[in-house]
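Margin note: ligand = adenosine-5'-diphosphate.
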Amino acid sequence: MIKLQKIHRNFQVGDQIVHALDDINLEIAQGEYVSVMGPSGSGKSTLLNLIGMLDHPSSGEYYLNDKNVTELGEVEEAQIRNKNIGFVFQAFHLVPRLSAAENIELPLMLAGIEPSIRDAKVSLALESLNLTERARHKPEQLSGGQRQRVAIARATITEPAVLLADEPTGNLDQKSGHDVMDILEALNQRGITLIMVTHDQSLGDRSARSIKMIDGRIESDNLNKIDHATVS
Amino acid sequence: MLQSRDVITFAWQALKGYRTRTILMLIAMSIGVASVLVLTSLGEGARRYVRGEFASLGTNLIIVIPGRSETSGAGLSNMMGVTPRDLTLADANALTRHPKVKQIAPLNIGGAEISWQNRKREVTVMGTSRELLSIRHWSLSRGKFLPDSDWERASPVCVIGKKIRDEIFSAHNALGQWVRIGDNRCRIIGILSSEGQSIGINVDEVVIIPVASAQALFNTPSLFRIFIEAKTRKSIPKVIQFSKDTIKARHQGEEDITVVTQDAVLATFDNILSVLTYALGGIAGISLAVAGILIMNVMLVAVSQRTAEIGLLKALGASHKGIIILILTEAMLLSAIGGIIGLAIGQLGAWGIRYAVPELPAYPPIWAAVLSFSVAIITGAIFCLLPARKASKLDPVLALAKR
Ligand SMILES: Nc1ncnc2c1ncn2[C@@H]1O[C@H](COP(=O)(O)OP(=O)(O)O)[C@@H](O)[C@H]1O
Ligand SMILES: [Mg+2]
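Resulting structure:
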């Protein structure tokens, strides 16, 4: 469903050009669980942002569901982000003045969905992530793990096909990190395509497929033969 | 697409979320709107005050005075041996025959002694008709004014000023008493309310009798003035011309009268004070613009403070237009609330002025309220276009990379 062809992404820094992505060719099928690893500055976030259509390639083609989305208008891009892609960030990025429920509701609000439908979806999401008691709490009143669960609920509230997670456990302690991983993997088992950037080798090993990046290139792309039970 | 109710809720939550910023901007905006209201209410109050003073002299009032005024050829007629003819009741009657003349009152004036029992004093006696009361906007504190009878008919009734009543009758009831004025006797049928000075005559110290009675008392057929009330302000020039023509025709082709009107003076004052009101409004409007610039700056800061949030909204599927709508709504909501508070403060301020200076009817004109409120919202929107556009152009990757 995701197909990147000869993708380059260059940044001009001073009078130098940084090749954040250097000739990336990549195909990811619906429902895959892919981890992206590699040293800092190797282009992992840039790749994820590109797939999430927050960023544009300097050259190359991006096909989403067999449709070339490289040069769509910003309104269409915004719609695709809203309906087909969910983001989970290391820094959670919750709106501080909004309650947990209101944060989760945001993508539905932006899509202009009726409040009654929104409320139903949000309470379901809260329930499935064990956040019902926290619905009215502001982010500052939540623990890190709870915040990331709110962020996951928000990322999945529009039932997107792809979930992009950039170091989702980077700001969490080990216990809540594992909880978050379990939730993400459960979502993947129910069919969502999960692409996760991580530093942590043990987390990277849990995925069915792991991509290793170095200097903007894909260094290796392996299928892991792993039994989840032994790892967790 | 975003629903407007959600947009307003979102903006409202943002305003609540950044309380200090919101309160500061509300203060700026409301001061702007309030100062427009207060300053224009001052100007408008001055205008109304002057207008009221003139109105107390009589609206659409034309005064006919016997004799040509010096500036326009009286010398010539004197040289030619023409003495001005008297203005008579017949002249006054002739002047009623114009469709734009609402009413006419002849006036005869002289001094006489009034006496009752053993009290007496000198008074100004005005001989006139029933119409004078409404032409001069006078009112009675007790009794009735002169009867509505033929001008040519004398009748032994009189209306007295308040001071005369107090001095002659003190604790006694004046109404219905017979008094002696000069050689005539008359019955008091009314007492005027205190009106103070009115074109050089102290209303409190006059005795008013029917014009025919006054003619008999002073033994002269000539009138001192004829007061004409035109139906509308616009018809005043026509009535003036009609008066001159009529009198000229009746006086063997001699235009031996002077016609004056208070309206020209009033119009000038009115214009000056209207301009003053606009000027005050404009000056106060500057503070609205300042408030607008303030809002722009604060919104710019708000946008940079909230880059992460804006980047997030983009990641969650907000388009450029959506971001602009969200930011603009926030600014407009802010200026609308500020505007409403400003309107309230402005009305309160105008009330304060009226309370402190009761003579000044300092009511803010409606145009000032409507204009300042809409200017508040429009400046809010215009000055926020820049920050909103800036927000919409924000690179979401960079915005989200910031912590
Ligand atoms: N907006 C940008 N401007 C300039 N350089 C950038 C920008 N974004 C990323 N880079 C550079 O691109 C490279 C890849 O960055 P990134 O994808 O964030 O790496 P990673 O997520 O693997 O740590 C780095 O060298 C980084 O400095
Ligand atoms: Mg990164």
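Residues 127 and 379 of chain B are 63 Å apart (CA to CA).
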